[in-house]
Amino acid sequence: MIFEMSSRQQLYPTITASNDDGDAESKTCGKILVALSWILVVVTMPFSLFVCFKVVQEYERAVIFRLGRLLSGGAKGPGIFFILPCIDTYARVDLRTRTYDVPPQEVLTKDSVTVSVDAVVYYRVHNATISIANVENAHHSTRLLAQTTLRNTMGTRPLHEILSERETISGNMQLSLDEATEAWGIKVERVEIKDVRLPVQLQRAMAAEAEAAREARAKVIAAEGEQKASRALREASEVIGDSPAALQLRYLQTLNTISAEKNSTIVFPLPIDLITYFMKAKEDNNM
Fold first, then answer.
1. pLDDT, tens only, 229-243
2. What is the model's pTM?
């Protein structure tokens, strides 16, 4: 055991020294290549200026690599920047907001209902250097993550929450995507759920349930109206019973209403008490 530890202690300084020697050699080679590149620029002046000077727009940034290493100072632009021929390469990064239309995703909700959901994601690059150096394709990665996040979020919700709480679900998706894409230099600004498509059979079942609920409410309302009307009629009969003249006035008002409608037939109401009197008189004669 002691022999192994001593051998490791002897090996690590050797590796460190070799790494330092490699870094020193690469720096020396880099300085030589940079000097040769400058010489090339001076010799081919002024034609080299057309190659060395580049322009990026206001909404763009340029990430420069010199001999494979990221150039210090961060992304360049907007405007004119300078590169050395043969040893410098650069990548343009668009900082404008992009829109990604998430294709419809088949999702099984928490209450075992299959729905098709699609959404729109608005995002932009907020750090050009990180978006180039930390991920191969930031836009493609963000789009794949948006699809996965949409399926995972909808799979943890029941159907009634998906239909009624779209804004809350969109906000949760936006926070989740923004946190995951922060290391890629991407800022997710907004997520909107466009449409939730239900199976045809489920749509018919929900429509039938809603229609039955409306009919039930209509019957309850009609019953309540009949109850209130019967109470009003009872109170009206009590008022009319206290005053016989009020009943006659009601007869006249009804006749006036019928005549105002331009009818050819006029119905005269006959009091029930009068018919009862004649019936009693007939029974007395028979006896």
1. 888 878 877 777 777
2. 0.64
- Nearest alpha-carbon partner for 80 in 105, 109, 60: 60
Backbone angles phi, psi at 65, to 5 degrees: -120, 130
% residues pLDDT > 90 (the chain): 24
Token pair listed for 229: 């009307």
Task: Look at residues 241, 249, 250 and name the one whose alpha carbon lies nearest to residue 273.
Answer: 241
Distance, CA of 62 to CA of 75 (rounded, Å): 5
Please report which helix (H) or strand (E) contains residue 43, including its range: helix 2-43
Cα 10 to Cα 164: distance, rounded to the nearest angstrom: 68
**How many Å apart are CA 62 and CA 55, to the nearest integer?**
9
Give the DSSP per-residue string, 48-95.
Answer: THHHHEEEE-TTEEEEEEETTEEPTT--B-SEEEE--TTTEEEEEEE-
Token pair listed for 127? 């750090």
Quick one: angle between helices 138-155 and 166-181, nearest 10? 140
Q: How far apart are CA 155 and CA 151, in angstroms?
A: 6
Q: In angstroms, rounded to a whole number, what is the distance separating the alpha carbons of residues 242 and 123?
A: 80
Cβ distance 176 to 146 under 8 Å? no
How many CA within 13 A on the CB side of residue 29? Answer: 10
- Give the per-residue pLDDT at 1: 43
Instruction: Answer yes or no: is pLDDT of 204 > 90.
Output: no
